[in-house]
Amino acid sequence: MSPVxxxxxxxxxxxxxxxxxxxxxxxxxxMNSRRAIESNTRALPINVEIVQYAKEVLDFSSHYGSxxxxxxxxxxLAGIPNVYPSSGDFTQTAVFRTYGTWxxxxxxxxxxxxxxxxxxxxxxxxxxxxxxxxxPTAVHILETYHPGAVVRILACSANPYSQNPxxxxxxxxxxxxxxxxxxxxxxxxxxxxxxxxxxxTNLIRLEVNSSLLDYYTELDAVxxxxxxxxxxxxxxxxxxxxxxxxxxxxxxxxxxxxxTLNKQFSIVTLREWPTNGYFDKLxxxxxxxxxxxxxxxxxxxxxxxxxxxxxxxxDPLQYIHLSLQPYWARINDTSLEYLQSRCTLIQWLNLSxxxxxxxxxxxxxxxxxxxxxxxxxxxxxxxxxxxNETCLEVITEMCPNLQELNLSSCDKIPPQAFNHIAKVxxxxxxxxxxxxxxxxxxxSILNFCSELQHLSLGSCVMIEDYDLVASMMGAKCKKLxxxxxxxxxxxxxxxxxxxxxxCQLLEELDLGWCPTLQSSTGCFTNLARKLPNLQKLFLTAxxxxxxxxxxxxxxxxxxxxxxDILGTRMVSPASLRKLLESCKDLxxxxxxFCSQIDNxxxxxxxxxxxxxxxxxSFTQ
Length: 620
Hints:
alpha/beta; 22 strands; 12-stranded parallel beta sheet; F-box-like_dom_sf
């Protein structure tokens, strides 16, 4: 054999891969357009750029504001800017529910799922619809306070205003990066370099990670630039790019087509098995341990290598804890069907953000749980808009061992469906944030689920009498450790008294934006005296919190770690000093918009108590 032959083979494969990639991504029309540019034989029509603001906010995972207001809500992202280019804390902006790592350091924090791919770091999202479908050329995000939270921008092939839904919904990542710290909270226009896509879109999704921020990020508007006709690739991009060789990496990063994972699930049956190498010399347990560090797509790829590793990759022990949230754009009924045989022993399952726009059907979800639900202990279904009453009924029937259920922002579930949750008496954690649960169903849940330790009722606007609910908690939920009543509109000192008397193990209590609580009734003093184990207390935007309340906390709640008294006008620097001296573990103190606490006081407190993050927000 000629010594030149191996080199020719390598070059042939190199050019083959490049040509194969170009052939797969370029249409015949695109190739003809390139020829037109090169030969100048015919003129192309002028492709005018269209600039448009978001017409409508379609979906989101959380927001700081109320469901019945516009202040700090995601709906502020629709239309032209309200604030930009001004900087500061403004109610007319869109604000997500959390920031920093404080929520990961409180008693209600959940254990993370292992095997989450390092490229997936999204914590929240918002989806925006625009008037005209275009091929995106730029996306401008107007950030007005603490920028830097956006980590992914995606485009969808489905037109939300079309009368005929497409057979396949395809998501493509326009831009993605790991979270990065931005110096300073000032406003900016964020315009990342986006990838070209081969379909027009008028549905853009922003995903955010606020873990590195010192305060809530605030977004004012999103501007989509694009053209109606598919742009012609420049001559530079028609040249061979060395990055094109790594096809698998590129597809993993950008390929969000629904069938990507399904092909990986099914292709293992289409190949002949090579030899097992030396893996059959290793103990079974050691191979299982090695494979436990792989993500789901990596397991699917490894299963194609040999029969031995196929058996290991399909072993149900590899799927005890399974998070499909990172692959939300690719999960559908077919995906669940392929996973059924592997998930018969599953205990933790995360289907958050999956299944929307018809990707997962009620029947497909029900079939999966009937096969895989018997051992489930934890089920995450945040933002699962395919869920209905039948789904909740199936969950309660097929998951007898369920202890944790997350239905956060599942706002499509009808109110009567929540009655089924009362059948799961083993529940220890229940998250109903931004759901339509009604009072009757909630009282039934509290009556029969006496093992509850963590309960979130934030922004549940359909509950009529929170005093009655609090009374039931005090009577039935003696093991309660964390309670989120964020923005409940009608709880009074009576309900707080019942709660504090009956749930004395409480370590975390969120009473932010509860306007009916008044310090003059003694409700906060009562809390401090009855709940000595408190580690987190949010009294956000309660104007009546006073020095007496702070001094009672300093005297009785010495384990306090996080305190939010944003907006109070009656707390002095002297009482804060007493609190900081008494609560040695305090790490977060939010005194934003506290009229007696100016920047000079904050600087002094920071100097004397350097281990405490003291936040003072501002508006210009």
